[in-house]
Amino acid sequence: MRHETKDAVVTCWLEGRITAANAPDVEREICAAADEALATCVVLDARDLAYISSAGLRVIMRLLKTYESVSVVNASLEVYEVFRMTGLSEVMRVERALREVDVSGMKQIGAGACGRVFRMDAERVVKVYNQGSFTPERVERERQVAREAFVRGIPSAIPFETVSVGEERGIVYELVEARNIGEVVSADPKACEAWARRMAELAGRLHSTEFDEGLLPDARLLHARWVERIAQTDLYAPQTIEALRRFVDALPAGRSFVHGDFHPANVMVMPDDELLLIDLGDASRGHPCLDMAGTYHVARVAAKRQDGAQRFCSMPAELLDRFWDAFVRAYYQVTDDATIGEIERSLAMIASPRSMGTNAFTKFIGEDERVRVAAELERRFMAGHGSVRWDLLG
Questions:
Q1: b vs e for 346-373, b when ≥16 Cβ sit within 10 Å of the residue's Cβ?
Q2: Is the domain covering 179-392 a CATH 3.10.129.10 domain?
Q3: 116-122 long-range contacts, CB within 8 A, separation 24+
């Protein structure tokens, strides 16, 4: 039996058929490989396993009692069904082998920082994540989140399955024949404010949908990760990093659905004018202000970079300014300029970790501009983070 060890995890490749006749030998080989490597976790790769009998299942039950973690990966449908019907898949990780998809003959219809989208047929697309941008676990989580969001009534594209695309992972979605809100507004600028109000209504719908702990991570973790990333650069003073950490630790908790990247290019307009969300990879649960801060970042920070409004929101800068103003007024049901100013300033403070982080790592600006913007973001945060108007943010 072939096996390899890495970081106290031994992977063993199962082959052929495991029956009463050879189950004891299989068990001895697995245990010998694990004990030799002082492994605490055992991964059984079942891609070449054609059959497993009850005797083989008992071997795995004994492994579960011996080692800290035991899992089965790349199981065929037939083998996976054995684990499912016997209930073993409920007490251990059992993963089916992913279907292989070849995109070489498919038309690419979209691309972004994390991957590409290909049209599979008249009804389906496959979103392929660039190798290294998303872990297999995060790709599968996006599929699960998209499925759960759809089931919970959140308007989102229907996910079908996770697939393997060479060395990369992908998700097969329904084909959405639609334009994003930015494209719709660009085509009809007179309707800018009306579409902004529609998007604000959608935001309210998302934020009124609550999730318990489990599937979705805490939205504050995304802010904390940005802080730790920029802490590895030399753009910000140590006292600023510590202030950011304290600020993130004090962010309010919540149970609302938080999209994580809610902006005009990620809200599609269907042929019947219904709105549909895409790109749920950063979805989480938390306070709605964290989502609104993300929208602020895209509309008021990222969009100010060269061609940023068009690149990120699919509309010219002057239209995006109109759109944001109508959007934030509709969402918070506020009309006076002074209150809107306080809301924007507060959202800017909450968005600071993301704004500082994207400035540190974006490829769309030069180093001189990066340093200049970093200094301005740092100055604003240190001057204003202690006076966020939480009472205005809900």
A1: bbbbbbbbbbbbbbbeeeeeeeeebeeb
A2: no
A3: 119/175, 120/172, 120/175, 121/175, 122/175
pLDDT in tens, 288-338: 999 999 999 999 999 988 888 998 899 999 999 999 999 999 999 999 999
Nearest to 244 by CA among 350, 361, 346: 350
- Stretch(es) of the chain classified as CATH 3.30.200.20: 107-174
Name the burial class of residue 328, with classes exposed (0-12), middle (13-18) and buried (19+) by CB atoms within 10 angstroms of its CB. buried
- In whole angstroms, what is the distance from residue 74 CA to residue 116 CA? 25
Q: Which residue intervals of the chain bear CATH 3.30.750.24? A: 3-97
Q: Please tell me the distance from the alpha carbon of residue 280 to that of residue 346, in angstroms, as a whole number.
A: 25
Q: What is the dihedral of CA 87, 90, 94, 98, to 10 degrees?
A: 100
User: For 33-87, how does the pLDDT look when each residue is reduced to its tens digit (9 = 90+)?
Assistant: 999 989 889 999 999 999 999 999 999 999 999 999 999 999 998 999 999 899 9
Q: What CATH fold (topology level) applies to the domain 3-97?
A: Transcription Regulator spoIIAA (3.30.750)
Stated pTM of the model: 0.76
CATH 3.30.200.20 fits 107-174, yes or no: yes
